[in-house]
């Protein structure tokens, strides 16, 4: 089998496309490109069932018709006042804005979930954010070191990353090597080191390859960092916006693209289902979960009429550096074609080749 783990690096660039009409609620859109609220802005009152108050004030567009920028509300998942974030075009910039807002180092942010403070992998912030989504920020908590005996070829892990240099565990297979460690390793744990090798800045597919290359029968150490779950928890209330212009509640998302630009796009149910199927195949063949990569694959397949054209498009793109196997490409094409024509068989568990 050819190497499927090599990948070209991409340097983010560009900024959010602001051509979309602004949100109708003036407190939800500002003309500022900076963080408009921070943890020190004003005294706060904490509550168990409502958000702490947002202290930012809307900045109106200039008389020349300057376009207003979208903003998003966020909190630290283990409890904090509400912050307001705007003026970012990729995930790394988003994390830096969050760090500035709450006066924490960006390096402490592990990942974000949408609309829940809980560590729910189905709610991870990936390649896009709904315009009505509330961001919860999970930061580093307790570190731990686990000794693992690789008694089987597959450890039972699915790995993803936060898009800013941290890989973490998205799923653990039942009755696997890792699951039998009596919950010492948990979903959401950041994989900081394998033995003495630091994984800072290493993409998830590289981490997956390192774990897969460990010989069966070997003993190795995993240094993991749990997300911080201490402190009070804040349950989000229902957040509603009045429909304005052509922006309808829950029908548009802010998507981070591979070229570093971000754009507002309509939610496409066919695309969402296809990306879910592609991600399932990525787990099967590579032991990773990567919505951005799945979205890139969908973009290349969307307007293709046959698998040959799709294969050529893959090979001619930057994804050609992955050297995907022929079986993988064929299975992706079959899955996408099924979704396009409405053939949606029962979901299968892809476990055979997971880590």
TrEMBL record:
Residues 25-40 have a biased composition (Polar residues). Residues 145-213 form the PDZ domain. Residues 1-13 have a biased composition (Basic residues). Residues 1-40 are annotated as: Disordered. SMART domains: PDZ (SM00228). It holds the Pfam family PDZ. Belongs to the GIPC family. This is PDZ domain-containing protein. The lineage of its organism: Eukaryota, Metazoa, Spiralia, Gnathifera, Rotifera.
